[in-house]
Specification:
The protein is of the alpha/beta class. It is built from eight helices and twelve strands.
């Protein structure tokens, strides 16, 4: 089945170029020049992936994203000239699958699109993961601790899922940053440390003495069942 990609961007030249590039790569593509039109087309066409601009005349991309999430679970990648860290983190914390800063190359666009669609397919087929008292469901983005639901932000969930998929193994800081923030944000180690702290506050009995999400000095982090814990 041909995968469908919806481009929502008021820059007509950019939208037409992305459509041409993606169609050459084998995707079915539709474009919308404003947020309202994009929302209507997303409901009617049910795309597998949405590429969403932020700066549009009728409604900004942040609002469009929130409206999309009321009726579709399709991955959304922001495509925008807003490249400051605060905007990147805002987009990812909303729950966007990726954040692509303009201008970008044809190769980068295809790489990001393929990766986003691959992650979506993988999550749709992946069973829940259980690590000690924690249960993580990639399909519904839900998390439980000792049978009770735990609310995580989208960024916290991406980080926990990356660790859960390699439970019992030490995952390097670089790999975690790449999976959570993307290939352009490999220097965001301080952000990683902050989100590790957030997760510990929600998952550990005593966040100051973590037994589930442990640090491996100079290497990275490891998610373990407490009985399998190794000393930090």
């Amino acid at each position: 089945m041909q995968e469908r990609v919806l481009v929502i961007d008021d820059d007509d030249g950019m939208a037409r170029l992305m459509r041409l590039q993606l169609e050459r790569a084998g995707y079915a593509v539709q474009t919308a020049a404003c947020g309202a039109a994009g929302l209507r087309l997303a409901q009617e066409w049910q795309p597998h992936l949405i590429l969403l601009d932020i700066l549009m005349p009728d409604m900004h991309g942040w609002m469009v994203y929130q409206e999309l999430r009321k009726f579709t679970d399709a991955p959304v990648c922001f495509i925008t000239a807003l490249g400051e860290d605060q905007h990147v983190f805002q987009g990812l914390d909303l729950g966007a699958d990726d954040y692509i800063v303009k201008p970008f190359s044809y190769k980068e666009l295809l790489t990001r699109v393929r990766a986003a669609l691959h992650r979506s397919r993988r999550a749709a087929q992946e069973p829940p993961l259980e690590i000690g008292p924690v249960r993580v469901d990639p399909r519904t983005h839900r998390v439980w601790r000792k049978g009770r639901p735990i609310h995580l932000t989208p960024t916290e969930f991406r980080l926990l899922l990356a660790l859960a998929r390699q439970a019992g193994q030490v995952v390097s800081r670089e790999e975690l940053v790449r999976q959570v923030w993307g290939s352009d944000y490999e220097g965001k180690r301080e952000s990683l440390k902050l989100y590790i702290l957030y997760l510990r506050r929600k998952l550990e009995d005593d966040p100051t003495r973590p037994r589930l999400l442990v640090s491996k000095r100079g290497v990275g982090y490891q998610l373990v069942a407490p009985d399998d814990e190794e000393s930090q």
